[in-house]
Design brief:
- Helix 2 packs across helix 5 (91-111).
- The protein starts with 6 loop residues before the first helix and ends with a strand.
- It has 5 helices and 4 strands, in the order H-H-E-H-E-H-H-E-E.
- It has a 4-stranded antiparallel sheet.
- It is an alpha+beta fold.
């Protein structure tokens, strides 16, 4: 089976910083697992909506256009994924996000790019020591 991005995923990479965009595209090119780009660069209105509904905790999101003109975050979803099971704490489904982040993180190290995962905000390797768990979220650290 060959994995490739849908048009929606490709569209969601428009406006994302080239370093992060290239990591995401390189991860897909490895053909290890299928995944989708659910969000990249966000509008201010979209961010306000996500904060209002509790799906984001900040108006200082890396998804918003940064001073260099690019968004510095993406939300990636393994495919297929059972989000109902994820939301109930299913380790079997949640681990799929960890595998995807591991691919991105390995490529980031190889390419000299620093990234942070929304399930390990402080980068200590522990995912249970955070108040806000955002498994799809990957951002550049600049």
């Amino acid at each position: 089976m060959t994995y490739k991005f849908s048009k929606k995923s490709l569209d969601n990479l428009v406006g994302v910083h080239p370093d992060l965009r290239d990591l995401v595209q390189e991860a897909m090119a490895l053909q290890i697992m299928d995944f989708a780009v659910n969000e990249g660069l966000r509008s201010l209105d979209r961010q306000k909506e996500l904060v209002a509904t509790g799906k984001s905790k900040t108006m200082n999101s890396k998804h918003l256009k940064q001073p260099d003109g690019f968004g510095h975050a993406v939300d990636l979803y393994p495919s297929p994924i059972d989000m109902a099971a994820v939301n109930k704490g299913s380790a079997q489904e949640i681990i799929r996000f960890g595998v995807l982040y591991g691919i991105i993180a390995t490529l980031a190290v190889k390419n000299g790019i620093k990234v942070r995962w929304g399930s390990d905000w402080n980068g200590d390797g522990q995912t249970l020591d955070h108040k806000f768990f955002d498994a799809p979220h990957i951002e550049l650290v600049k």
